[in-house]
Amino acid sequence: MPVAKPELSDSRVIAHVDMDCFYVQVEQRKQRSLRGKPTAVVQYNSWQGGGLIAVSYEARKFGVKRSMRGDEAKQVCPEIHLVQVPVARGKADLNDYRNAGSEVVTILARRGRCERASIDEVYLDLTIAAEAMLADNPPERLETISEEAVKSHILGLEEFPVEVGSDAREKVRHWLTRSDASRRDKLLACGALVVAELRLQVLEETEFTCSAGIAHNKMLAKLASGMNKPAQQTVVPFSSVSKLLGTLPIKKMKQLGGKLGTSLQIDLGVNTVGDLLQFSEEKLQDYYGVNTGSWLWNTARGINGEEVKGRLLPNSHGSGKTFPGPRALKTVANVEKWLSELCEELSERLQSDLEQNKRIAHTLTLHAHAYKSNDADSFKKFPSKSCPLRYGTSKIKEDALSLFQAGLREYLGLYNVKTSGNQNSGWGITGLSVSASKILAIPSGTRSIMNYFHSQEDTCPQVKLSGEKLIQDAPLLSPSENCLGSGGHLTLRSTEPRIAHCEEDTETKDSLPLDRQEEDKEMGKEKLPDKETSICSSPDAEVYRGWEKDQTESCGDYLTEKIRDTLESEEGKKSNKEKGMSTISRYFQSQHSGSLLKGEHASTSKLREPFSLSDCQSELLQRNSLARGESSVDAHLCSQIKLKRPAWSYDIDEIDQDVLNELPQQIQEEVQAWLRPQKRSNTVKRDLGITRYFLPAKDK
DNA sequence: ACGGATTAAACA
DNA sequence: TTGTTTAAT
After folding, report:
1. How confident is the model at residue A510, as a pLDDT?
2. Other CB atoms closer than 10 Å to residue A156's CB: what's the count?
3. DSSP A518
4. Which residues of chain A have pLDDT under 70?
5. Could you identify which of A301, A319, A463, A561 might form a hypothetical disulfide with A345, taking C-beta atoms 3.0 to 4.6 angstroms apart as the criterion?
6. Are A18 and A223 in contact (CB under 8 A)?
7. C1' of B3 to CA of A537 (Å)
8. What pLDDT does A434 receive?
C-alpha cells in the first residue's frame, strides 16, 4: 500500500493539525449549553441509542468511547449528552461538519501549503514561513514567546541540559529560543510558533480547539499531533526520533494499523517500530514488495518524503448508506428509491462545488454491498461500476440506476436471470453508495458559465415539459426520471425500466429480473408525465433566455454551451435540434458536415486508449451523429447505459487537428485547456522535460 | 452480517 | 483504466 519516497530534505517544517472531537465541537458551537459537558454525537438513535461517532474529552474520562452504542455510553456516563447527527433524506447529513472543516482550512492555509487530509485534519508545509522567520525575526531575539507556544510539548526535552529550578514552560521557552540549537531545531521552533499562532486564530475565529504536531515530515507530525490532546501541540526534534520510534507499537504508525501491521507482528515478530530496524531493506522488499519494503525500511528510521499537497478541496464526493441485516433492500424499486435519495444529495454537493469552487466532476461510481442466499458463489462481491458523470439530478439518478442494474446483472450471473421473474431470488442490498470523482477545475476562460448558474435555482433546474417532446423522449427516460412529484413524493412507473442495450444485449433486456415487487402501493400507478415536475422552480426564464441568446450568438464558450445543454435536456428534453445545439457543434456541422472524427462513425468507432473529455466530447459527438441522421437515442443509450465502451471515451487522436485549427481562437483555447490537464500524466511531462534537457539537439 | 459514512490512494 | 482493496477518521 504505502509507497516509498526519498526524503529530499530533512529540514522541512511540517505540521499536522487535528481538530479535537470535531463533530462534538461543531454541535457544541450550535448548542452552547453543551460546552464543557460530557457530550457525544450519535447517529441513528433508534437501535440501542445509536452509534457514537464523536466523544468529548469530558465524556472520555468516564470511559466513553467511539464505537460505543448510545445506551452503553449512558451506562458508563449517565450525565452524557447525546446529540443526534443531522439527518436529511433518511440518512446522516455531514454537511455541517464539512462546512466547519472548511472554515478551519481557510485559516490554516494562511501560512503555507495546506493539504486537507480529512474532514478534520490538515497537513501544513511551513518550511518557507519558518525559514523566513528564522532569517528575519528568529525566536532567540524575541523577548516574549506566546503563551500558546510555551505550552508546547517538546519530545525528548528531558534530555536537554537545562538550568536547575525551571518549570516545564520555562524549559520549553528555553528550547524554543536556544541560540546554540541546530538549524533544524531552530526551524522547528519557528514552526511551533507559527502553529501556535494559527491554532489561536482558529480558536478565535471558529471557537474550535485543535491539536498539532510539528516535525520534519508528515509521518512524524501526524504521530505527534495525537500525543497531547486536546488543544495542545507537540514538537518532534530530529534528535528524539529514534527514541520515539524505538518503543512505539507498530500498529500506531499510520498505514500500519491494519493488515500490514498485523502481518508485521505475526510474520516477522515486529512489535515496535524499532524492531523493524533489524530487517534489511531487501528482506522487507522480499516480503512486501519493493515499494512497501522500502517504505517500511524508511519508516523504521523516521524517514518519510511525502510532500504536503496543496489541496484544500476533496478529490471526490460520495453519498452512501448501509442497510444492515433485516433492513436490506430486496426490490429494485426500493433500491431505486434510496439511490434517488443518495443521488439528490450527491447532486446537491456537486452543484455547490461547481458554484463555490468552479470544479466539475467527471466520473460517477456506484458501489453496493449485497448478499445472495441459495447460491454457490453467494460470497461474490457486488461489482462497483462507473460511467461519465452528467450533471443534473435526474441524469445522475438515471445513470446510477443503470449502473446498479448492470452491477446486479453481473452479480446475479447471466444465467438464472430469467427464472426469477418478479420475485427476488434471495438477494439483498446491504449497502449503497454513489460517488463523484475526477473533479477538475474549470479552466479559466470558461468561467462565464457561472453567470448562468447564478441566475438559476441551486438544485434542480426543471421546467415544464412540452407534451409533444415528452412523448418522443419518454422511452429514453429511466424509471427514475421525473419520479418526484412536487411534494417530493416518489412515484413509480408501472413499466419495466427501460434499460437499453445495444445489439447483442437486446435479448437479455427482457429477461432481466429487475423485480418490482408488489409491496409498493404506488406501483400500480401509471406514471403520466407530470405537467409540472419541478420541485424547485426555475426562476428568471427571461434572464435565462436573454443569456442564452447572447451566448449562442457570440459564439460563447464551449463549456458554457455544454452545461447549458445538459441542463436543457434535464429540463424536459427540449428539442436537441436548433435550440439545444451547442455553438461548437453547430460550428462543426456548418463547416465540416459533421465530420469531426477522422474515423467513420462516432458512436461505433472502437477506441483503444479511451480518453476522457467526458461528456463535453460525447455530447459533441452525439450531436454530430444526430446531424448525420443517426438515432441519437441509440448513440446515447449505447454509450451511456450499456457501459461497454462509453461514448465519452474517445481517443484524442480521433479529433482531426485540422478541424481544430480552423476553429475560432477562443474555442480552440478552451478545447485545448480541456484536453491538456487530462491527457498528460506527471511522469510523461517530466520525462519529456528531461528528454529535452539532455537531448537539446534532437528535435521533432 | 453491523461502528456508519466518507475519503484517499495503490494495485492489478 | 476500471474496478478492487486497504486504511483512516
Report:
1. 30
2. 17
3. T
4. 1, 5-8, 161-164, 414-423, 445-700
5. A319
6. no
7. 40
8. 96
Cβ proximity of A317 and A365 under 8 Å: no
User: Do residues A490 and A539 make contact, with C-beta atoms less than 8 angstroms apart?
Assistant: no
Residue A210, pLDDT score: 96
Distinct helix (H) and strand (E) counts, chain A: 26, 15
Beta-strand relationship, A39-43 and A51-55 = antiparallel
Q: From CA A166, how far away is CA A143, in angstroms rounded? A: 17
pLDDT of residue A412: 87
The pLDDT of residue A425: 73
* Cα–Cα distance for residue pair A589/A591, rounded to 1 Å: 5
pTM of the model as a whole: 0.70
Per-residue CA distances from A624 to A420, A475, A571, A587, A601 (Å):
41, 21, 22, 11, 10
Beta strand spans in A392-480 (E):
427-441
Chain C: nucleotides below 7 Å from protein CB are 1-9
Q: What is the pLDDT at residue A638?
A: 32
pLDDT for residue A325:
85
Protein side of the strand B interface (CB < 7 A): A 1-3, 43-44, 51-53, 66-67, 91-92, 94, 98, 116, 118-119, 289, 291-292, 309, 314-322, 324-326, 328, 369, 371, 430-431, 433, 435, 437
Measured between its terminal Cα atoms, the distance across chain A in Å is: 39
CA at A322, C1' at C4: how many angstroms apart? 19
| pLDDT digits 0-9 by tens, A600-617 | 233 323 322 233 333 333
Could you give the CA distance from residue A663 to residue A683 in angstroms, rounded to a whole number? 31
Position A132 scores a pLDDT of 98
Q: Are strands A210-215 and A233-235 parallel, antiparallel or unpaired?
A: parallel
Detail the protein residues whose CB sits closer than 7 A to any atom belonging to strand C: A 1, 118, 120-121, 222, 226, 253-261, 363, 365, 381, 383-386, 609-612, 643, 649, 678
The pLDDT tens digits of the residues spanning A249-262 come to 999 999 999 999 99
With CA of A646 and C1' of each nucleotide, the nearest comes out as C2
